């Protein structure tokens, strides 16, 4: 009996330790692991496709069973992998482990990590995205040194990846009605005992995300303002120290 197959992607780049930790966890979960990820960071790029440029592809060794680096977006990576690179259709598409959370509706709509999973779902494949919340200080450390992990974070990263891989295993053979993506967000102190809550996306209003400088405008993160006041949002669950599991059914938009 063949092993189930998972296609991994991300928006932090093929060299990110978080991706490699997820690939290792998926292998331990019994998957044949295929990877198609961008050559470098493609965060906050949403569902962008490289419509007007060539997308170079290179096979790489030492990551999963088959792996490719693509000079494109996460959506490019998944589409090209499914259409041209893989030996057969994967059982699951799993995107992540993202550096920082992808909670709240604005981030779900702009996330390259979510976009990679959405592209898998658009092909009728069970799909999930996974992200690890980080303090701003740790986020900056990891973002600028993607191939290393602060020692105190490593056990929590491994626990989050183990959970995500185990969840992906539950999607093997699952029905895929409409266009549905599972969005998993992990608190920074995740362990094997961290509870999981079913959640909805928080309604955050970020306002201005750019500040003026001498050359124009530069992106500047802010935490936004929560508008819904609900206790069952993804952001609220993470703040309580729980794993947030949101089911995003894009086929119901406009209903």
Task: Note the topology.
Blueprint: E1 5-9, H1 17-28, E2 32-38, E3 57-59, E4 66-70, H2 74-85, E5 92-99, H3 105-110, H4 112-122, E6 127-132, H5 136-144, H6 154-171, E7 180-186, E8 196-199, E9 204-205, E10 210-213, E11 216-219, E12 225-226, H7 234-239, E13 243-249
Parallel strand pairs: 1-2, 1-5, 2-4, 5-6, 6-7, 8-13
Antiparallel strand pairs: 3-4, 7-13, 9-12, 10-11
How would you portray this structure in words?
The chain is an alpha/beta fold and 255 residues long. The chain has a single domain, classed as Stationary-phase Survival Protein Sure Homolog, Chain: A (3-Layer(aba) Sandwich), CATH 3.40.1210. It contains 7 helices and 13 strands. It has helices spanning 17-28, 74-85, 105-110, 112-122, 136-144, 154-171, 234-239, and strands at 5-9, 32-38, 57-59, 66-70, 92-99, 127-132, 180-186, 196-199, 204-205, 210-213, 216-219, 225-226, 243-249. It has a 9-stranded mixed beta sheet, sandwiched between helices. Strands 9-12 form a two-stranded antiparallel ribbon. A two-stranded antiparallel sheet has the order 10-11. The chain is globular.
